[in-house]
Amino acid sequence: MSKIALVTGGSRGIGRGVAEYLHEHGFEVAITSRHEADEDAQKKFLCIVADNSSAEQRAHAVDAVLQKYGRIDVLVNNAGIAPRVRADLLDMGEDSMRELLDVNLVGPFFLTQLVAKKMIEQGSGTIVNITSMSSDVVSTNRGEYCVSKAGLSMMTKLFAVRLAEYGIPVYEIRPGIIATDMTSKVRDKYDALISGGITPIKRWGYPEDIAKAVYALSLDLLPFSTGEVINVDGGFHLQRL
Ligand code: NDP
User: Fold this and answer.
1) Which residues are designated catalytic?
2) Is the CB of 148 under 6 A from ligand 1?
């Protein structure tokens, strides 16, 4: 029987890469996004238009998956946004902080709460949160993004502990610099940093790099591990002297 995965923000970028990879490896995949997904996605996935920052739309997404497949084996909390403007910490607006927290943290938190209850009922499931190196690394021109991702990292630990007794592992994948729409505006900056050696593995990351990590975690091959952080960042997090 195929496993059923729900990937938020699966229409483009990392989420799309995850959805494609899981689909190619025998999963039934449902994706969410705020806008209609393209035709190719419609053919392969159950495509749900749902804004992850809306409680009603999250509930609609979960209902749609359960109606079609009856279960959710893997939840990938991927949907996330960068600030509209990179503003210095001393000037950043409250609206931007609220928007980022709503989409990047509050949405995934309560979606996880909803799906976790279903997984408890099923007696199994795996949850994977896509955070960022910004969970740990300071960027003073996008502090709201850092705070939202640090919150998501704590959320991983919280649910890992709470769901351990039900045999539901919760993992964090912490991507580095990945080539997607999100990073397209700062491509030149990152090109220079990568060729200057900021990552020991000197290349951009690709959605498929994250997809392979999600797939690996979905295979239930780490039965005595939960709350783990998997860095998918070309070694960026390693301190060097
Ligand atoms: P993209 O901007 O390329 O894609 C974002 C995806 O999320 C799209 O499918 C988008 O579709 C969807 N989305 C955005 N907001 C919402 C929302 N409120 N509700 C539902 N879906 C939404 O981003 P990436 O693929 O680069 O990023 C994916 C995740 O990975 C994010 O959480 C990001 O923070 C994280 N990440 C990315 C890194 C990178 O270098 N690219 C590095 C570290 C972490 P639509 O616009 O139609 O809603």
Assistant:
1) 145
2) no
